[in-house]
Amino acid sequence: MHGGYGGMNILNGINMTLEADEVGVIVGPNGAGKSTMLKAVFGLLNVSQGEILLNGQPIQNLPPNQLVQRGMGFVPQEKNVFPSLSVQENLEMGAFLKPQNVKRMLAQVYEFFPPLYEKRRQPAGELSGGQRQMVAMGRALMAEPSLLLLDEPTAGLSPLYMNEIFDRVKQINAAGVGILMVEQNAKQALAIADKGFVLAAGQNRFTDTGAALLADPDVAKSFWAASPREKCVNELAFFINNVVIAGSVSGSIYAIGAIGVTLIFSIMRFAHFAHADMMTFGAFMVLLLTTLFPAAGASVGVPTAVLMLPLAMLLTAALGRRHRQDLL
User: In what residue span(s) does the ABC transporter domain sit (predicted)?
Assistant: First the structure.
């Protein structure tokens, strides 16, 4: 399939196949054409070349209202609820083509998303981001689709709600609804995917089962950038391991040496023996130089000791001398 906006193609020959009972996940870097692909499937932009088949029937370039009648639902990433309407009114809007099924479908949506029942009379605009996403998904389900398109359903959500949405996706699929979703949290999404499609520059780069893509080292090397949460955890672990632990251990060792030298100086009456200050400056120098020279400070080696021990000793001795002068 080829397609895009105006006369410019964003999709340059994408091929995808998804069975009726499968979860398909589209991932890839920014600008790869992921959301554009969903919009093309749902008739929101022009397909210039190729076919889109739903249950064997061509549907490319049909308007969205006809696609809903044929069994397709779409949940956009943003502005996907009516904020001034209540939760239940939002859901009822999704059943405008099948008003006779409102009561039955409401019961099913509330079964998928129990928190919505408790907030059914509350304006959707007052809900949290995760709850609004539940409303948007529930509204699309009110039309009883056989295929549900989700555009980044966990974008901007907390880890708690992100896991909740993935659980609901699996539950909806188990109820007989095919899922095709674009997702920024690639690893978590592929973990529940029957099929995964990795796009780059509007083309297929990798296509396989979700498990196979997760295990593929070429995919990992090319596309698995750490999430903001993973980056934060990694940076915190690096700080603890290379600064706090290494700095504390090294600082204690160097400070003991500085205490010994200063003790000698104090016996010779060149300095005042101040334990707290010596420990502080010894640790401070290790922390400072570990941060400036992480390769040297990551372990207690000879270059580190040669560099830090004299500095800790000198600063400690100098501070001790000042204390002695203050006492005098």
Answer: 1-226
Residue 84 main-chain phi, psi, to 5 deg: -85, -15
CA–CA separation, 321 and 315 (whole Å): 10
Among the candidates 184, 209, 224, a domain finishes at 224
Residue positions counted in the chain: 328
What gap in Å lies between CA 3 and CA 42, rounded to an integer? Answer: 12
Does 294 lie in the same domain as 235? yes
Contact 220, 196 (CB under 8 A): no
Which has the closest alpha carbon to 37: 18, 47, 29? Answer: 47
Give the bridge partners for 147, in sequence order: 72, 178
Strands (DSSP E) found in 167-295: 178-182, 195-200, 203-208
The β-bridge partners of 46 are: 4
Same domain assignment for residues 166 and 51:
yes
Q: What is the pLDDT of residue 257?
A: 63
Count the domains in the chain: 2
One-letter identity of residue 277: D
Residues 179 and 45 in one domain: yes
Rounded to the nearest 10 degrees, the angle between the axes of helix 246-267 and helix 302-327 is 50
Tens digit of pLDDT for each residue in 162-207?
888 899 999 999 999 999 999 988 888 999 999 999 998 888 888 9
190 in the same domain as 116: yes
The answer to whether residues 28 and 172 belong to one domain is: yes
Strands 23-27 vs 178-182: parallel, antiparallel or unpaired:
parallel
Lowest-pLDDT range, 76-85, 223-232, 293-302, 307-316? 293-302
Q: Determine contact, residues 259/316, Cβ cutoff 8 Å.
A: yes
Tokens 């699996």 sit on residue: 170
Domain boundary among 206, 224, 242: 224
- Tell me: do 108 and 197 sit in the same domain: yes
- Half-sphere exposure for 81 (CA within 13 Å, toward CB): 27
The boundaries of the domain holding residue 317 are 230-327
